[in-house]
Automatic annotation (TrEMBL):
SUPFAM superfamilies: Aminoacid dehydrogenase-like, N-terminal domain, NAD(P)-binding Rossmann-fold domains, P-loop containing nucleoside triphosphate hydrolases. This is C-1-tetrahydrofolate synthase, cytoplasmic. Its EC number is 1.5.1.5, 3.5.4.9, 6.3.4.3. It catalyses: (6R)-5,10-methenyltetrahydrofolate + H2O = (6R)-10-formyltetrahydrofolate + H(+); (6S)-5,6,7,8-tetrahydrofolate + formate + ATP = (6R)-10-formyltetrahydrofolate + ADP + phosphate. Pfam families: FTHFS, THF_DHG_CYH, THF_DHG_CYH_C. Pathway: One-carbon metabolism; tetrahydrofolate interconversion. Residues 8-126 form the Tetrahydrofolate dehydrogenase/cyclohydrolase catalytic domain. GO terms for cellular component: cytosol. One of its GO terms (molecular function) is methylenetetrahydrofolate dehydrogenase (NADP+) activity. PANTHER family: C-1-TETRAHYDROFOLATE SYNTHASE, CYTOPLASMIC, C-1-TETRAHYDROFOLATE SYNTHASE, CYTOPLASMIC-RELATED.
Length: 962
């Protein structure tokens, strides 16, 4: 052996690398405790030689504290099945590296190159994806380097031999070793020749090599006499040859005659124990590097989305909403999803412009800090409109596209009722819109239809049960409810829950006594005590009262009932308040739909319909991802009424938005109507249910609306505005300011800074804006900003966005208005006095009886029957009173006034608020006191928007939406 010649032990170097990686993994876990580097090893079939390599990789992963999973597929696996497995792993955030063990031991043809290219370049720790290979070929080392060549490079570096300027010969041209090896040497400034088994005069070529890498797959092909004295020899071959001295009769050798090379070369790798351990070490290193990239992104304090806003082309005068919307081409929603940190498995595409977002994202990001939480409310609405949705959209465009903050808008899905009625769409307006506006205002992803279907399925089951109980004996009813299948009867899980509620602990259908059969089978619903109605997502006044069961087949079992609009369904309120699937299921189960003839409540679970409703609603619980005109994200979800329900977008949409936007981001969500209704319910119902702490309120006002509150003339739909609204009138404006000041006061009572957004109109004057601004600041508003987002998009709301950022930087002092354990009447009084400015409240005897029955545990009191203002009957049962006194209050009151009278404008004080009815939403989880006339089914006006909406049959475009 020449003096100084060394054996290059890959085993020793790999051990050093693993020790370093072990420390790096520990550091990742220290910085991000929820992140463990993960490697997926996919194998088709069960070749033992492949199993040996897989065990080596799993052992190495375990040694450094990494998770490795062996995903073994049968030999019958098809190419499509294997691609589906790779796709699943690509989308699984638990895995930072994926390798497909070769060769593929499959009974069916599989294109190995197609499979390696299917592995995401970001997880291709083998470095075999064409994208990563291409990077190496062009000198871009930012991707994953192929493991064996990278291990060879590490061994060459350990010899101390300078690579730059050396002459290197690579024997072998395979995709896995030879070709990438030559590229790595080339970009390390060696002069490289690639040869192979068919190269002429190969021995003479090898004789010139300072660095020799052999990966040809021929045992001991390279002889010692071919090697240049002092050369570095890296032997990548591993071949089995006969050896009668070995117990197995075989021994492993490389592509180089090792014993002959030792006396001549300066460094030689042994086989085994040379390149093999280094390949595994480099695989581990690539996986750890992948996890480190994820960790850096998670811990980076100033992390921003890589979001590319869409530029606006502003024109004057401002075109119609639909013209603006159609002039902007939305980005593909899959691109937007990736920009804001969603992974493909969390996104279900509905075409290219909208997508459902899975609740799985909440589990993945459960340990991430929440974004700042901002709610947009308004002053008392007027027919002139305040532009709450437009302001919200403009603000988020400003935060994201102009202030470069992560921010998400969370909006309710609009009902088709107002879209085809008189209000029109709710996608914002001008240059602050959600697009495509047609999708937003119409079917979207079908959530309202799902609520309609679930609601009406429950109604259908309720009426069918009344019919079947009226026409069958106890035994016949029981035998149909628990049918014999293949000679055996079995209770469904939902039926077992009913048995448990009845105190019947039996699970064998044949063990029930006749009395137990009767109690189980008969709900004994009183047809006159049904409180559940059917719903439809249109304005249809003739469905406010109907008679059902008129067909002769229903045997004269008729009853009076009604329809409500879909968004007023208790199911919609539940959709908005549910924190997940299980929570939604429990809430649906508790919905009271009727009372039996003894006064006991009948629930959706009693009717056996909970599971079926869940099936209809399983996709509806996922919010819909859309975008603004400037390409910033919007989550659209739920749309409950703001008078009969709480009128806010969903908890899950806000939760998802807060996790995606992150600690330094913003979620801007909406509350229906003014601060007295939507904001109050947002705080006391929604925030109480979600546990979220709001950081700021944006209170939207307009000069024109304040003039109306100051006594301005009545506005008639379709008629030109009076001159008071079109020209400067400081006296009228000043008289209307008390309404704004009352809403500022309302927000401040919760300890949250209030930013007033003065939504500018072209007819406003600077003096009018200044009057509003000074009054708002004097009343305690954190800031009052004139915002021109309608005409200028996010740019016009940049100052408003900065004010919101500054307000959110103040420590939150949020507090609720009342505690739920207060008596119901005291909670009502607190809301009426603090939010509306009332002096007293008046409860009639019916309401007082109901409150007593909600709060007292009394049995035997007769049912109280009352006709509420919704045209349906409400029955309060003493049997069902337990525990409801501690529910929050959801006041049903006109949105058009701080009082119960919609004609009263401004900010009256010390008036009497009359509570003329009260009802229970047990599933949604609140009590609803009602003030005045509240309709759950709007009607169409004489001249609805229907006249303007049409489909252009030549272009396929919808016309007339606004």
């Amino acid at each position: 052996m020449l003096s100084g010649a060394k054996i290059l032990s890959g085993t020793d170097v790999a051990k050093e690398i693993r020790e370093r990686l072990k420390k790096e993994v520990a550091e990742i876990r220290r910085q991000v405790p929820t992140l463990m580097p993960g490697l997926a090893i996919v194998q088709v079939g069960g070749r033992e030689d492949s199993n040996v390599y897989i065990r080596m990789k799993i052992k190495a992963a375990e040694e450094i504290g990494m998770y490795a999973e062996h995903v073994q597929l049968p030999r019958s696996t098809t190419q499509d099945e294997l691609l589906a497995t790779v796709k699943r792993l690509n989308e699984d955030p638990c895995f930072h590296g994926i390798i497909v063990q070769m060769p593929l031991d499959s009974e069916t043809p599989i294109d190995a190159h197609l499979i390696t290219d299917a592995v995401s370049p970001e997880k291709d720790v083998d470095g075999l994806n064409t994208i990563n290979e291409g990077r190496v070929a062009t000198g871009d080392m930012s991707g994953f380097l192929p493991c064996t060549p990278n291990g060879c490079m590490e061994l060459i570096k350990r010899t101390g031999t300078p690579i730059a300027g050396s002459y290197a010969v690579v024997i072998g041209r395979s995709k896995i070793v030879g070709t990438p090896m030559s590229e790595l040497l080339k970009w390390a400034d060696a002069t490289v020749t690639v040869a192979h088994s068919k190269t002429k005069n190969l021995n003479l070529l090898i004789k010139k090599a300072d660095i020799l890498v052999v990966a040809v797959g021929r045992p001991e092909m390279v002889r010692g006499a071919w090697i240049k004295p002092g050369a570095v020899v890296i032997d990548c071959g591993i071949n089995s040859i006969p050896d009668p001295t070995k117990k197995s009769g075989q021994r492993l050798v490389g592509d180089v005659k090792y014993e002959e090379a030792l006396p001549i070369a300066s460094h030689v790798t042994p086989v085994p124990g040379g390149v093999g351990p280094m390949t595994v070490a480099m695989l581990m290193q690539n996986t750890v590097q992948s996890a480190q990239r994820v960790a850096r992104r998670l811990i980076e304090m100033e992390f921003r989305w890589c979001l590319k806003p869409l530029p606006l082309k502003l024109t004057e005068p401002v075109p119609s909403d639909i013209e603006i919307a159609r002039a902007q081409e939305p980005k593909d929603v899959s691109v937007l999803a990736k920009e804001i940190g969603l992974i493909p498995s969390e996104v279900s595409l509905y075409g290219t412009k909208k997508a459902k977002v899975s609740l799985k994202v909440l589990e993945r990001l459960q340990y991430e800090d929440d974004a700042k939480y901002v709610v947009v409310a308004g002053i008392t609405p007027t027919p002139l409109g305040e532009g709450k949705s437009t302001t919200l959209v403009g603000l988020v465009q400003a935060l994201t596209a102009h202030k470069r903050c992560n921010s998400i808008a969370c909006l309710r899905q609009p009902s088709q009722g107002p879209t085809f009625g008189i209000k029109g769409g709710a996608a914002g307006g001008g240059y602050s819109q959600v697009i495509p506006m047609e999708d937003f205002n119409l079917h979207l992803t079908g959530d309202i239809h799902a609520v309609t279907a679930a609601n009406n399925l429950l109604a259908a089951q309720l009426d069918a049960r009344i019919f079947h109980e009226a026409t069958q004996t106890d035994q016949a009813l029981y035998e149909r409810l628990v049918p014999a299948v293949k000679g055996s009867r079995k209770f469904a899980p939902i039926q077992l829950r009913r048995l448990k509620r009845l105190g019947i602990e039996k699970t064998d259908p044949y063990a029930l006594t006749p009395d137990e059969i009767r109690r189980f089978a008969r709900l004994n619903i009183d047809p006159h005590n049904v409180v559940w109605t059917r719903v439809l997502d249109v304005n249809d006044r003739y469905l406010r009262k109907i008679t059902i069961g008129l067909s002769p087949t229903e045997k004269n079992l008729t009853r009076d009932t009604s329809f409500a609009i879909s968004v007023s369904s208790e199911i919609m309120a539940i959709l908005a308040l549910a924190t997940g699937l299980e929570d939604m299921k429990q809430r649906l189960a508790k919905m009271v739909v009727a009372f039996d003839k003894t006064g006991a409540p009948v629930t959706a679970d009693d009717l056996g319909v909970t599971g079926s409703m869940m099936v209809l609603l399983k996709d509806a619980i996922e919010p819909t991802l859309m975008q603004t005109l400037e390409g910033t994200p919007v989550l659209v979800h739920a749309g409950p009424f703001a008078n009969i329900a709480h009128g806010c977008s969903s908890i899950v949409a806000d939760d998802i938005g807060m996790k995606l936007a992150g600690k330094r981001g913003y979620v801007v969500t909406e509350a229906g109507f003014g601060s007295d209704i939507g904001m109050e319910k947002f705080f006391n119902i929604k925030c109480r249910a979600s546990g979220k702490v709001p950081n700021a309120v944006v209170l939207v006002t307009t000069v024109r609306a304040l003039k109306m509150h100051g006594g301005g003339p009545i506005v008639t739909a379709g008629a030109p505005l009076r001159r008071e609204y079109m020209s400067e009138n400081l006296d009228l404006l000043e008289k209307g300011l008390p309404n704004l000041l009352k809403h500022i006061e309302n927000g401040l009572k919760y300890g949250v800074p209030v930013v007033v957004a003065i939504n500018a109109h072209g007819t406003d004057t600077a003096a009018e804006h200044e009057l509003v601004r000074k009054a708002a600041k004097a009343a305690g508003a954190f800031e009052a900003i004139v915002s021109n987002h309608w005409a200028k998009g996010g740019e016009g709301a940049a100052e408003l966005a900065q004010a919101v950022i500054d307000a959110c930087n103040r420590p939150s002092e949020f507090k609720l208005l009342y505690e739920v354990d207060m008596p119901i009447e005291d909670k009502i009084i607190r809301i009426a006095k603090e939010m509306y400015g009332a002096g007293t409240i008046e409860l009639n005897s019916k309401v007082r009886d109901a409150i007593r029955l909600y709060t007292e545990k009394v049995r035997g009191i007769p049912n109280k029957l009352a006709h509420d203002t919704l045209g349906q009957k409400v029955f309060i049962s003493a049997v069902y009173s337990q525990g409801f006194g501690k529910l929050p209050i959801c006041m049903a009151k006109t949105s058009m006034s701080l009082t119960g009278d919609p004609s009263v404008k401004g900010a009256p004080k010390d008036f009497k608020l009359v509570i003329n009815d009260i009802c229970l939403s047990a599933g949604a989880g609140f009590i609803v006191p009602m003030c005045g006339e509240i309709s759950k089914m709007p009607g169409l006006p004489t001249r609805p928007s229907i006249f303007d909406i049409d489909l252009n049959t030549e272009t396929g475009e919808i016309e007339g939406l606004f």
